[in-house]
Amino acid sequence: TFDLNDFSGGFYISGNDFAETTDLCASTILLKRPNDRKVYLHTRYWIPESKLDASPDDVDYRAWERAGYLTIVSGNAVESSMIADWHFKLLKEYDLKPFKSGYDNRFAKDFQNRFNEIFDENGKNKVAINIPQEHKVLNNPMRTLEADMRDKLVIYDNNPVCFWCYCNTGIKIDTLGRIMPTKMHPTKRIDGTASKIIAYATLEWHRSEYMDLIG
Fold first, then answer.
1. What percent of the chain has pLDDT over 90?
2. What is the pLDDT of residues 78-103, one digit of tens each?
3. Hey, what long-range contacts does 166-174 have (CB within 8 A, 24 or more apart)?
4. DSSP run (H or E) holding 144
5. What is the 3-state secondary structure of 61-92?
């Protein structure tokens, strides 16, 4: 575990997975320290209330909400702008600022608009960036995340929703041997894992700039 207050005033990279806004959504912020190999991950989840009764999952979403890991949203869908508002909450409460925020473009229009409104109104900083959900883009980040987890370098606050998503995650291999995440079972959710791979991809694209910024 770790304390977000220890990173107060700093910058983070984030990965945001909306998969379908009618299902589980996840946002992970990735933090690093100079001369520290560890990667610190803080993740928040959202799910529509209508999904709870219909869900075949043997997990207690309401308990996760009470513990502060998850937000249950009334209705049938999660507005992706809510995730941007959560990032603004991190700014207000911890003075944590996004350096780059990766997202899957398919369901992200409201997130992109709201996020840019808050953090990049003039559009010059290009804080929010699209990370295509393709083998050639996700292969290296997924392998790096796996290696970091094997080396016990990933500090994810013992978030039980993250652990559940990790356990649900398999790999899909293309003809060139490149990998990307896939569900081990059609009804199981991997959004937490996907958000972390997106964060790792964003870090991979902007590592030198980010490390210079926090150094």
1. 80
2. 999 999 999 999 999 999 999 999 99
3. 166/192, 166/193, 168/193, 169/193, 171/142, 172/135, 174/135
4. helix 135-150
5. HHHHHHCCCEEEECCCCCCCHHHHHHHHHHHH
The letter for the amino acid at 29 is I
CB atoms within 10 A of CB 151: 10
Task: Provide the 10 A C-beta neighbour count for residue 208.
Answer: 8
- Strands 179-183 and 169-173 turn out to be antiparallel
Pairing of strands 25-31, 11-17: antiparallel
Asked whether the beta carbons of 171 and 184 are under 8 A apart, the reply is no
pLDDT of 19 reads: 72
pLDDT tens digits, one per residue of 26-69: 999 999 999 999 999 999 999 999 888 767 778 899 999 999 99
Report helix, strand or coil for 60. coil
Encoded tokens for 173: 């291999």
User: Using CA atoms, how far apart are residues 43 and 157, in angstroms rounded to an integer?
Assistant: 9
End-to-end alpha carbon distance in the chain? 22
β-strands 25-31, 39-48 pairing: antiparallel
| Rounded-to-integer distance, Cα 208 and Cα 144, Å | 16
pLDDT tens digits for 180-212? 999 998 888 999 999 999 999 999 999 999 999
